[in-house]
Amino acid sequence: MAKINDFNFAGLKAIVRVDFNVPLNEKGEITDDTRIRGAVPTLKKILNDGGALIVMSHMGKPKGKINSKMSLSQITSAVAAALACPVKFAQDSADAKSQADALKPGEVLLLENLRFHPEEEGKPVGIEKDDPNYDAAKKEMKARQIEFAKTLASYADVYVNDAFGTAHRRHASTAVIADFFDDDHKMLGLLMEKEVTAIDNVMKNAQHPFTAIIGGSKVSSKLSVIKNLLDKVDNLIIGGGMGYTFVKAQGGHIGDSLHEDDLMPEALNVIAAAKEKGVNLSLSVATLAADRFDNEANRQTVDIFNIPDGWMGMDASEESLENWKKIILDSKTILWNGPVGVFEFENFAHGTGEIAKYVAEATQNGAYSLVGGGDSVAAVNKFGLADQVSYVSTGGGAMLEAIEGKTLPGVAAILGE
Length: 417
Description:
- This protein is α/β, with parallel strands linked by helices and 417 residues long.
- The protein is built from 13 helices and 17 strands.
- The chain has a 6-stranded parallel beta sheet with strand order 3-4-2-1-5-6, sandwiched between helices. A 6-stranded parallel beta sheet has the order 10-8-7-15-16-17, sandwiched between helices.
- Strand 3, helix 3 and strand 4 form a beta-alpha-beta unit.
């Protein structure tokens, strides 16, 4: 496998899959350019070597149809500013061969939204899974996806995947395209290399004690993650909305707190498995409760097993945070995914903010920390702590699947795993 820092792109054309799925306002202006800035080191490496650059990405979920609100033409000037050079634009990613062929060393071509073509995702359009013709339609789309990937590959000499946010998808541009390049001409970008290394550091090379902090609203969305972690961690902190399912499963009274009754047996299985494996499973002992789901709601701190009717748990209590602080500061490896309260409400964001501070402090004391997931990332950014943790992941879904133990197609297509 080629390594990007060891490769010389001089005189070659490189097609790079990036994640430029950036948020836009109603005027089509970028409100957060983090993903563009994240790709700059890889893109500049190619240009500085004297290579020509073809950049491809998706934006939003156009479902195989052209949608001007999701056109990458809106971000061309931002990409040009980030790279400090002009950027040409191809209005159809499947018909850009002549533009690609005309590129000279140091020039950049940005392709239109890949997902304007249903072949990118490779899913049959306009037919449901229960339709008797679905399998035939799926087979046909699979063939079309391969042809679309072949077309994209024909634009360049080298393929680079730097889009970790879509690494868990076997799309034309994230995995299938790699089949058209030999091992010496396909590689991970600098951002992808960092992501893969960060995940390996916690999932394969963790120093102990290893603590995972899993938050968020639902057990169902992270049950597989929790189960896989039980074989790896010393401490498992479960916070946020999902914690109330664990409490109710043990006979607790949770008032109107968010929970999933059908997941209670699984919650009990997790508790039993943690005990069997010697994992310290830590839930909140008390919660900051509210009488309605509103930032301005009335608040009181109550025992998490005795939340009054009409009240709901909204944030971790100080007592819970003190327990978690000790666990986190005693750790050598820390994985954090998901908030421990309703982080979008200022009055219930305290717990998540404190977790961010503990993780940063532990990191400064020598621990390795990986933070991923929207609200977790938002917390370390909000408190100016992003540079005080070891790594902040750019891909929520991809990171979760990697933690589940799943193979990421976008990585496997390059590494051959």
